[in-house]
Specification:
Elements lengths: L7 E3 L8 H15 L4 E5 L6 H14 L2 H6 L16 E3 L10 E3 L10 H4 L19 H20 L4 E5 L2 E4 L7 E4 L2 H6 L9 E3 L20 E3 L15 E3 H16 L3
Parallel strand pairs: 1-2
Antiparallel strand pairs: 2-7, 3-4, 5-6, 5-8, 9-10
C-alpha cells in the first residue's frame, strides 16, 4: 500500500523565544494540515515515552476481568453513574476487539469548580489498585502533564491510515515522534480551511498498544468561526459554535456508528 505524505516537523522552536523560527514551524504545520492533515512532531521534549509505554503495557497485560468490570464505564456497568467517560472500556464481541482505559484532567477532584457544578462529561478519574500497579497512576499523570505542554506549544501556532483522493494510504510509524492531526472541530471553526482527515486503524493480526492524547476545549467554550479569506469588507453573519454541544453530538454519533462508546 502507498505511504501517505506525513512530514516530520521539528517543533523545538515552539518552546523558545525566536519569533522567526516559530513562524517557520507554523508554516510547516499549516502546510501539513492542509495536505493529509497529519504530521509527526519531533524534538518535543517528552523523555518518559519508553517508561510510559512499558507501564501501560504491563497494566493491560496483567489486568483481570474483575478489575476491568470494577472500573468499567456506565455504558457497560450502569451502576457506575459517575463514570460516563473515565474508566475502562471493554471489548465487544464482533464489534471491537480493543480494550481501553480513559482518563481526564488529573486536577479534577471533588472540590474542583467544574466537578461541583456537575459540568457534563467532566469526571474524576478512577484508578486501578496501587498495590498491584504501584507506578501506573504516577506515570499516566506525568505523561498527561508532559503531553499537555506539547499540546499548548502546538496550539499557540495557529498508526493509522489516512484517506486521500487515491484511497487509504499507510502512515509509517515513528519511535520518537508524536503523530498529530486536527479534528472535526478545527475544520468547523476554520470554515473548512483545515480538513479533519478521515482515518482508520490499520488491521494487523497481532497485538498492538496505542496511546492517544486528545485536547478538548472547555465544555462551555464558544468559538466564532473564522475564514482565511476574511477582510474588513467581508459581510455575512459569523457562526459561533459551543464546544460541549459539538462534543456531545460527535460522541453520540460515534456510539451509533460503532455500536460501542
Amino acid at each position: 500500500m502507498p505511504i501517505a505524505n506525513v512530514p516530520t516537523i521539528d517543533i523545538s522552536p515552539l518552546f523558545g523565544s525566536n519569533i522567526d523560527e516559530k513562524f517557520t514551524v507554523a508554516k510547516q504545520i499549516d502546510a501539513a494540515c492542509r495536505d493529509t492533515g497529519f504530521f509527526f512532531a519531533k524534538n518535543h521534549g517528552v523523555k518518559i515515552l519508553n517508561d510510559f509505554f512499558n507501564t501501560v503495557d504491563h497494566f493491560h497485560q496483567n489486568i483481570t476481568n474483575d478489575e476491568k468490570w470494577e472500573m468499567a464505564i456506565s455504558a457497560y456497568k450502569p451502576e457506575n453513574t459517575e463514570h460516563v467517560l473515565t474508566g475502562f472500556y471493554l471489548p465487544k464481541k464482533d464489534v471491537k476487539t480493543v480494550q481501553s482505559f480513559y482518563i481526564q484532567n488529573p486536577n479534577f477532584n471533588p472540590g474542583h469548580s467544574l466537578i461541583q457544578a456537575k459540568t457534563p462529561l467532566h469526571e474524576i478519574n478512577v484508578w486501578p489498585n496501587p498495590n498491584k500497579y504501584p507506578h501506573f497512576r504516577e506515570m499516566v499523570e506525568k505523561f498527561y502533564c508532559e503531553g499537555f505542554k506539547v499540546s499548548e506549544a502546538l496550539l499557540h501556532v495557529a498508526n493509522l491510515q489516512v484517506e486521500t483522493p487515491n484511497g487509504y494510504q499507510d502512515i509509517e510509524a515513528s519511535d520518537d515522534s508524536f503523530l498529530v492531526n486536527g479534528g472535526k472541530f478545527l475544520e468547523l471553526i476554520s470554515s473548512g480551511y483545515y480538513k479533519a482527515p478521515l482515518h482508520r486503524v490499520k488491521y494487523v493480526n497481532s497485538e498492538r498498544l496505542s496511546l492517544p492524547f486528545f485536547v478538548h476545549l472547555a465544555y462551555d467554550s464558544k468559538v466564532e468561526a473564522a475564514s482565511p479569506e476574511d477582510t474588513d469588507k467581508s459581510d455575512g453573519e459569523k457562526k459561533t459554535y459551543q464546544y460541549g454541544t459539538f462534543f456531545q453530538n460527535e460522541r453520540l454519533e460515534l456510539i451509533r456508528k460503532n455500536g460501542q462508546t
